[in-house]
Design brief:
5 helices; 66% helix; mainly alpha; 434 Repressor (Amino-terminal Domain)
């Protein structure tokens, strides 16, 4: 049986989903209700602090999706971005 690659950390999924939505950190921060700072988004995306369930719901709402779809979109986008980076490095 082939060895499965581990899933990327949540912070990488959040970053990939934001990039897929073509939003800057500041734009996502402003879209969250109530708004948060760009630094808070950067922290979520850099393993700086754990992301609460409530925050995940707010991020998903700001992106017009559900938490499940946010994570699936993030995983798909992360894989596409990794493949693109690999092609660029070759």
């Amino acid at each position: 049986m082939p060895k499965r690659k581990p899933s990327p950390p949540l912070c990488e999924l959040l970053r990939a989903a934001r990039i897929e939505a073509e939003l800057s950190q500041a734009q996502l921060a402003a879209a969250i209700t109530p708004p948060i700072t760009q630094a808070s988004v950067a922290c979520m995306e850099s393993r700086g602090k754990p992301v609460s369930e409530a925050t995940l719901v707010k991020v998903a709402d700001a992106l017009g999706t559900t938490v499940v779809d946010l994570l699936v979109t993030g995983l798909q986008a992360h894989r596409r971005q990794a493949r693109a980076a690999k092609r660029g490095a070759a």
